[in-house]
Design a protein that fits this description.
By secondary structure, the chain is α/β, with parallel strands linked by helices. About 20% of the residues lie in helices and about 30% in strands. The protein has 3 domains: about 100 residues, Beta-grasp domain (Ubiquitin-like (UB roll)), CATH 3.10.20; about 100 residues, Translation factors (Elongation Factor Tu (Ef-tu), domain 3), CATH 2.40.30; about 140 residues, 3-Layer(aba) Sandwich (Rossmann fold). It contains 10 helices and 19 strands. The longest helix is centred in the last third of the chain and has 14 residues. The chain starts with a helix and ends with a helix.
Length: about 350
């Protein structure tokens, strides 16, 4: 009765993930996904706003409060199977969820919030900046993961993937490849007014894009600034002397949009097994001297014989439309979803459309 009169005080809840058998606490009024990320768990996700479906999770027991209508994203079968979106679900007490894609062997790092100072800004193309930061506190991360960056005093943050492999003893520096999104407050500032010595806030690490153990050859696909986490992942694999063949497809619009070519060429020369690097230009003028691949990534991917492609595991990072089309080609070739991993880069316009 008193609860009805005065309202029940929201309390923390425990979430147990099966079959990994990992439990964590969700503070009052927080979503399952946010709590997992805050505690360094690599919970599958991409957008955090209920638009991508990457955090689909089956609710086994207990109840959740859903922040948005999920029916537009889930099929009738998924609704009947009690599928929820972890990014839009707040537990109403202790719950158990089933998430086979969650790996207990995945990255586990403490999430660290630290001040950062801009050490260098290098425009590598007309719309991509290499941002190098010096960190006040050391962080650890796994290649492929990302950080939240923001301006001091602002609650608004943006997510950017680390562009270099981590140091074993922890990192006091961090590097990112950041694409300019016109109208985006952070990148407008970064490209027009930021300078060495300026302060930022950084919180990391997050994300479940990381190289899984295995022996199968790899198809690595990067579009635009999506090269950062792919390169970091391959840098780490090379340092670990990984004996897996790699086909690396790098998609941009024109030859002027290619960057980090010396680093990629050096990586190919020194790869422990075999690495084939294939840049692909989608809008290169017809009369140019470019002799490499032209067109879209998914078209070049489809040129690989299906029986050969089917033996690979896929890792993709870049624009959502590029990833969607490339993943379709991989599936049609016979690569299972359990061997396709991706990080779709969404900008402010993408989030506005999805909201």
């Amino acid at each position: 009765m008193f609860g009805k009169l005065f309202g029940s005080k929201a309390q923390a809840a425990t979430v147990r993930i099966t079959p990994a058998e990992i439990s964590f606490i969700v503070p009052a009024k927080q979503t399952i996904l946010q709590a997992a990320l805050d505690q360094g768990l690599a919970y599958p996700h991409n957008c955090r706003i209920g638009s991508c479906g990457s955090c689909k999770t089956r609710l086994v027991s207990g109840q959740v409060r859903e922040l948005t209508d999920k029916s537009y994203l889930l099929t009738e079968a998924e609704m009947a199977d009690n599928i929820i979106l972890a990014c839009q679900s707040v537990p109403r007490g202790d719950i158990v969820v089933d998430l086979p894609r969650f790996s207990a062997a995945g990255p586990r790092h403490d999430v660290v919030a630290t001040a950062a100072t801009i050490g260098a800004l290098t425009r590598v193309t007309s719309d991509i900046m290499a941002l190098e930061l010096a960190l006040d506190s050391a962080i650890t991360y796994t290649a492929g993961q990302y950080a939240e960056l923001g301006l001091p005093g602002s609650a608004e943050t943006r997510h950017y993937s680390f562009a270099e492999a981590p140091q074993q003893a922890g990192n006091l520096q961090a590097k990112f490849f950041i694409r300019h999104v016109p109208g985006g407050a952070f990148t407008d500032w970064l490209f027009s007014a930021a300078k060495a010595g300026d302060k930022l806030t950084l919180r990391a690490p997050f994300g479940d894009f990381w190289l899984r153990p295995g022996t199968a050859p790899l198809i690595a696909i990067a579009g635009g600034s999506g090269l950062g986490p792919v390169k970091a992942m391959l840098d780490q694999a090379r340092a670990d002397k990984l004996l897996r063949d790699v086909i690396l497809l790098f998609g941009v619009r024109t030859e002027a949009d290619l960057y980090a070519l010396n680093e990629l060429s050096n990586m190919a020369r020194n790869w422990p097994a075999r690495l084939e690097f294939i840049p692909v230009l989608s809008a290169e003028p017809a009369g140019s001297n470019w002799t490499g691949k032209r067109g879209f990534i998914h078209d070049v991917l489809a040129e690989i014989p299906r029986d050969k492609l089917a033996r690979h595991h896929g890792y993709l990072c870049g624009p959502p439309i590029m990833i969607d089309r490339a993943v379709q080609v991989m599936r049609e070739a016979g690569i299972g979803d359990d061997h396709i991993f991706y990080d779709a880069f969404t900008d402010k316009s993408s989030l506005a459309t999805a909201a």
